Amino acid sequence: MKEQEIRRKEEILEPRGKLGVLIPGIGGAVSTTFIAGVELVRRGLGEPVGSLTQLGTIRLGKRYEYRTPRIKDFVPLADINDLVFAGWDIYDANLYEAAQFAKVLQKDHIEPIKDFLASITPMPAVFDRRFVRNLDGNHVKKGKNLRDLVEQLKEDIRNFQKTQGVDRCVMIWCGSTEVYMKPEDVHSSLPAFLEALEKSDERIAPSMLYALAALELNIPFVNGAPNLTVDIPALIELAKKNKVPIAGKDFKTGQTLMKTIIAPGLKARLLGLEGWYSTNILGNRDGLVLDDKDSFKTKEESKLSVLDYILQPQLYPTLYKNYYHKVTINYYPPRGDNKEGWDCIDIFGWLGYPMQIKIDFQCRDSILAAPLVLDLVLFMDLAQRANMNGIQEWLSFYFKSPMHKENLYPEHDLFIQLMKLKNTLRYLMKEEQITHFGLDYYME
Ligand SMILES: NC(=O)c1ccc[n+]([C@@H]2O[C@H](COP(=O)([O-])OP(=O)(O)OC[C@H]3O[C@@H](n4cnc5c(N)ncnc54)[C@H](O)[C@@H]3O)[C@@H](O)[C@H]2O)c1
């Protein structure tokens, strides 16, 4: 992406007409909570709590100017009234039934919008059980080979665009976590990937086929799960070639959100870390999928890397070199989507004296994820209209494993991530960057 290609301020294309939101995994807990929530907000029956685009503000200029508009009044975002939804799932239940199955929202949030939810039915998915072993739905496409499946997805998207009168779309993967995969030669370049696709190579996961379909139709793609998906050189190359924004991976909610709030604080005060033990119980379908060790490994990798990047043991060996870090997720059906996460943090202070911090976060997974989905859809659409393409690192704020350029380490500190995001918005609107320097106020 070249700087002069980025459209800024008045050059950013206006968000005219409807914005299509395409969701692989549309029948899941996160998707149904997101879609129902948007409709409730539109009807004045709910508040978009947790959404930066809907509730957040941004400071502009000097502190004494008191210019703090809402983000949605500052940058040209699509209006939530203009969102229309479609997606795929391996189960054919409509969203009214799926939301009831997910048991995230209560009756008084589902019943008033029953007609709306029941009107959205998943399209048959591209699915392969080798990648998600603990699920077995039959609402699945058949194809001659992987290319054929991609073409079927593209046909679904074109039909949706035509019937809904939609010209801009964003695709966001809210499907299950696929088994752990390492990038291999077939993922290393676009020609190698396309050749492997023709041969239906078994190292190409279903999520990659959705991403390919999106990118070939110039649709921005976001990955909400920790799967490799679009985080491979082949698809990054395609995103740049077709000038499409991409972002991922793995929504930062729950325990990792807490970790990236607390760890920067410990490091800021140079408090040492002996160990950080994290465990969770979770009883929804995501928990069932993660009960398979290879799907969990994908998640584990995503959760573990966070601390090392924040604490930088190579720079602070006496404080952070040998800390013990463990993360587990236990499938425990009675809790459903209401995950409970415990952290036992062993720290040390002045002269090495030990101290402990305990966290018991009784959270609601999809309630935390839904506003992230909304923000990502709106910001990715903005990125596309501003002609920003390839990896959107400024959206790291939303992810456990932010995608980043090769040879550049990811930024995990939530507060730096937020500053990065807001400075990108200031840049796009030709406002001065805010460094929080502040000494200038005291210079005569
Ligand atoms: N706070 C959170 O909830 C959170 C945070 C980070 C990441 N995630 C990730 O988001 C994803 C969704 O989470 P969830 O709680 O909604 O899970 P879920 O199991 O309720 O929903 C996932 C849906 O994807 C469907 N699916 C699986 N493979 C598919 C395919 N190939 N094509 C289309 N549909 C497919 C499943 O049938 C299911 O309905 C998971 O990967 C999860 O790890 C969730």
From TrEMBL:
Share an example GO biological-process annotation for this protein: phospholipid biosynthetic process
Q: Which organism is it from?
A: Thermodesulforhabdus norvegica
Arranged from A to Z, the UniProt key words for this protein are: Membrane, Transmembrane, Transmembrane helix
Q: Quick check: keyword Methyltransferase in the entry?
A: no
Give a yes or no for keyword Transport in this entry: no
Question: What transmembrane ranges does the database entry give?
Answer: 21-41
Tell me a Gene Ontology molecular-function term this record carries: inositol-3-phosphate synthase activity
Q: What is the lineage of its organism?
A: Bacteria, Pseudomonadati, Thermodesulfobacteriota, Syntrophobacteria, Syntrophobacterales
Q: Where is the Myo-inositol-1-phosphate synthase GAPDH-like domain?
A: 254-366
InterPro entries, alphabetically?
Answer: Myo-inos-1-P_Synthase, Myo-inos-1-P_Synthase_GAPDH, NAD(P)-bd_dom_sf
Matching entries from PANTHER family are given as: MYO-INOSITOL-1 PHOSPHATE SYNTHASE
Protein name, entry field: Myo-inositol-1-phosphate synthase
Q: Which Pfam families did the record assign?
A: Inos-1-P_synth, NAD_binding_5
The family annotation for this protein states: Belongs to the myo-inositol 1-phosphate synthase family.
